[in-house]
């Protein structure tokens, strides 16, 4: 579904992404892991249009999407979440979901005056869909809670719910488990699996929790120094000497092998 070819993103002399080449298969839940500073989030930002690449190419289902802005990618079904959730804190959970779909009739002054019936029908349909999303995510009891009052894990579920309000094809999840307790993390993992299996969502997940990655992801791609280092199942990745060295460092790896 997504193909990244020789992608670069430089900040002055710093090469955050340095010739990354990888693919995300349609229908997969692909994990993206690597040590801090490996370029994972920068890669996400370039693919999702939040940053312009220095060079290289990104295609989605064979279409060149390199450098397209986020709103254009949104309409093509490419969405991303952030490590820190971005909710409208003063609005209810239900209202946050209802705001997601674009081109709503109520967005223009003319329609607000002369097409009130159409607006009411659209809002009723959006409200019904939002309720279905909240029930799917098992947070329907929070529908009237202000989003700013939610816990970190509940906010991550709300962000996942936003992707369900539109025709998402692929969703990039950036550290969805950060700051989330184990119970809610299990709820998030179950929701991702169900969206993948029941609704055909493709996911790419950045996460440091290897148990979470192991439960969800196949394949797992490892990045280091701005490029792909390895790819395989979670067991293959854990046994890969290059990956161990990238995470632990040569000195620590050799120290661990030295007899006491």
From TrEMBL:
One of its GO terms (cellular component) is plasma membrane. Pfam families: ABC_tran, BCA_ABC_TP_C. Residues 2-250 form the ABC transporter domain. Signal peptide: none annotated. GO terms for molecular function: ATP binding; ATP hydrolysis activity. This is Putative high-affinity branched-chain amino acid transport ATP-binding protein. The keyword Transport applies. InterPro entries: AAA+_ATPase, ABC_AA/LPS_Transport, ABC_transporter-like_ATP-bd, ABC_transporter-like_CS, BCA_ABC_TP_C, P-loop_NTPase. Keywords: ATP-binding, Nucleotide-binding, Transport.
């Amino acid at each position: 579904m997504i193909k990244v070819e020789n992608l670069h993103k430089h900040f002055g002399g710093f090469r955050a992404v340095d010739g990354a080449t990888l693919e995300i298969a349609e229908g997969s839940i692909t994990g993206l892991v690597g040590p801090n500073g490996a370029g994972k989030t920068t890669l996400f930002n370039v693919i999702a249009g939040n940053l312009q690449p220095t060079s290289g190419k990104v295609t989605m289902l064979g279409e060149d999407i390199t450098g397209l802005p986020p709103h254009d990618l949104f309409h093509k079904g490419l969405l991303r979440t952030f490590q820190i959730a971005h909710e409208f804190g003063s609005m209810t959970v239900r209202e946050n979901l209802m705001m997601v779909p674009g081109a709503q009739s109520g967005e223009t002054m003319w329609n607000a005056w002369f097409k009130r019936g159409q607006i009411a029908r659209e809002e009723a349909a959006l409200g019904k869909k939002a309720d279905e999303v909240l029930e799917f995510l098992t947070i329907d009891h929070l529908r009237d809670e202000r989003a700013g009052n939610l816990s970190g894990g509940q906010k991550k579920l709300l962000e996942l719910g936003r992707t369900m309000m539109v025709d998402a094809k692929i969703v990039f999840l950036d550290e969805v488990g950060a700051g989330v307790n184990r119970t809610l993390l299990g709820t998030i993992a179950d929701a991702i699996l169900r969206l993948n299996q029941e609704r055909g969502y493709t996911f790419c997940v950045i996460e440091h929790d290897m148990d979470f990655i192991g439960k969800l992801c196949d394949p797992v791609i490892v990045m280091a120094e701005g490029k792909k280092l390895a790819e395989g199942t979670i067991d293959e990745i854990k046994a890969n000497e290059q990956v161990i060295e990238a995470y632990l460092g040569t000195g620590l790896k050799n120290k661990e092998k030295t007899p006491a």
